[in-house]
Amino acid sequence: MVNQAGDRLPAPGRFVRYRDTDYRLQHHAGRWWITADHEVDESFSRQGRRHFVKRLAHDDVLECYDLARPGTYRGLPVEVAGDSGSAYWVTTRDPAGHAEGFERDDHRGPLAKLIAFDDAELRFTTTRTPVPMPWKIAYEWDRFTERLTDCFRDVTDGVFLIVHAAADPRRYVQFAGAPDRLYAEAPGTDVAADADEFQLRRFDWAEPEVTQPNWTSELRRPALTSEFAGLARRCVAALHEAYGITSPDELRYRAWSQPFGADATAVEFPGLGLD
Questions:
Q1: Residue 233: pLDDT above 90?
Q2: Does residue 6 carry a pLDDT above 70?
Q3: Staple 238 to which of 21, 109, 186, 252, CB 3.0 to 4.6 Å?
């Protein structure tokens, strides 16, 4: 679109539509909420002198979308980040932006420049991309973490369990029970090409070695419930953060028992809530 001056633009980000009004979605430490400058309805509670907050529960079903304004300016890929009241704030990550007067406020951010509303060389579109409700997804992963924690006690000596993406079995975590250990493995980019190994490292998976190509974690047994829960959170982080699996609904599992020297027999884990 060709730019037209108008109302102040909200910065790109994630929004929720509630009662025909769009609110920026906010979150911290597993909690999600929207804010208003007045009491929209009884679900909003006052916080401070000027703000009212609606905390989102896992059963709140609301339209959620990502707002973006991609465009071009003199051949550069740009995004319109907002406006100053008299011009657009425009950003780019193309180093060629320096030659067009874009500057960086800090070393981590993109290059930025104010561009007049009537500058015909700036063209952009506003996109609203629907996304799954993150507060609901977070709740579902929390419940799955609890179920996985409970199942670990049944991954005993000679029992193997693999939890994987239904659409791509190369995205998985696998477990093997031993007399005094519970071993966990997760593949890296040599198996799941776009796996985010930064997330595996961030959640304390041990890096691959010459004799072990997968990322690993292990737990000495007997273990406390809190220790099983810590391993479960690490595995959920691999599935959700490193492999990009959106919801536990996208998971499947395989399990079997194969004591040393014996044939394999199938094992059921109905507590996982997976097919």
A1: yes
A2: no
A3: 186
